Amino acid sequence: MSSTRFKAAVLLILFLCLGMWWLVSWQYSMKWDIMDITLPWNHFISECIRSGNLPLWNPYLKNGFPMMGLPDTWYPITWIISFLFGMDVWAIQMDYLLHLFIGGFGFYSYAKFKGIDQRYSLALGVCYMFSGFMVGNAQHLGWIIGAAWLPWVVLYFDRVIEGNGKAEMLKLALVSSLLFYGAYPPITIILFYVLLAKMLFGFITKSKKLERKAITKIGLSFLLFLLISIVGIVGLYDLTPHLNRGGQLPLSNTGWGILTGFLPAKAISSFVIPYGGTSLNGFWGSDISLINCYCGFLTGLITVTGLLAKNKKTWFAFLVGLLFLMIAMSELFPFRSWLYYLPLFDKFRFPSLFRMFGIFFLLLASGYAYNDLGKSIKSQKYSKIIIGLVLIVFLGSTSFNWIQEGAFGVNVLFESGLQQFNKLASFEDKACINFFILSIVVGALFVNSLVSKNWLRHLPFFVIVEILIMSQFNISETVIHFGDPSI
Length: 487
Hints:
Layout: H1 3-19, H2 21-24, E1 29-30, H3 33-50, H4 76-84, H5 89-113, H6 118-129, H7 132-136, H8 141-161, H9 166-182, H10 185-205, H11 208-239, H12 281-284, H13 297-308, H14 312-328, H15 335-339, H16 355-373, H17 377-405, H18 408-416, H19 418-424, H20 427-451, H21 455-478, E2 480-481
Antiparallel strand pairs: 1-2
Helix pairs in contact: 1-5, 1-6, 3-4, 5-6, 5-8, 6-16, 6-21, 8-9, 8-10, 9-11, 13-16, 13-17, 14-16, 17-20, 18-19, 20-21
């Protein structure tokens, strides 16, 4: 590892500890499915391994369950943690934090590989770690593992396509296998089609000679993937006929229909006011763990500058990200229903899962826009105007909410603490807090842009500060359990 990558890894760990201090300092435990389902499951695997047995059969689940049939039973990182520490409350939380780091470092590596400025690549890695998917779906460890390995799979896939050596083929097979073993299975299915589309698109713009070499290397990587993943593949193939969820699911949005768990259109507000998404379950029409799309407001502003400047890479990545969001919003758009007829797309629910890919491409679009912004004085002037206008809107919204609601939000937050505020605050109260914080961050950035010639070099710092502060409010609702962790 180069010194630059090592420094980036250290900084990402530091930011992870700052943003997830609730868990790192053992103040609170996590909650919901990761504690109720994943922990008992992984604890059984851990106990088997530490006693010298393979986790083939679980006699404690209903009338017994063939553990060997599910790929995550064989996920190497679970085994490593089990060997070293055993699997308990604290270990499962460290497992979650570890995969946040893997995802953040992976996105940093991919953004840097695509030529995005190193500082901004680091900021994007932090944004990916603390995105609405990573924080909102913290209870779904399989989803987090999938998001963690996604950048690595795409990185090595692109490197193989571009003609890199044999080592890249092995790395691609390895990270793809880790994703297959640890991730929620639909993520592997979706990513397979994404990579297939990337390959077809790449072949259109490459020479025939390079095309033949790429096909050979991708084919060899796929064979290596099959060899590494054979235990999980065979076990899953044998188990599937015996599962009531192994067959075709209906094309509906109720019960076990594939449209169940969509991303509500109202949830788009989470790009600006993610904290509001933790209120009013009935209002959203979906589980609060499925609605958070936040990946940094300032990154979105930078993307807008790239779109206005008609940067082709920014537009392409933005449109791909937008497409994934529309697939996730299956109540409005027909795209998820159309995908139903592709092989394996009739096997899983939760269209909101697609927002993970949307966040990935939107952050990538922001990176391209930042690069373009640094090359154009005219674009920088426009960006200052945009930032100033946004600041006026935020100050106006904050003032209006303050007049309408009074000082309830701020008073309760500072007098009674975040836990009490979460219980009493309305959507408007939480939105007001969001606007207030963004007003400070955007205001500081605007002032910096006026007084400093190097304000663009400082922008990644503001992006990191914003994502770390804003994410704390959602972490308090969708990640940690306010209570005595010793229980």
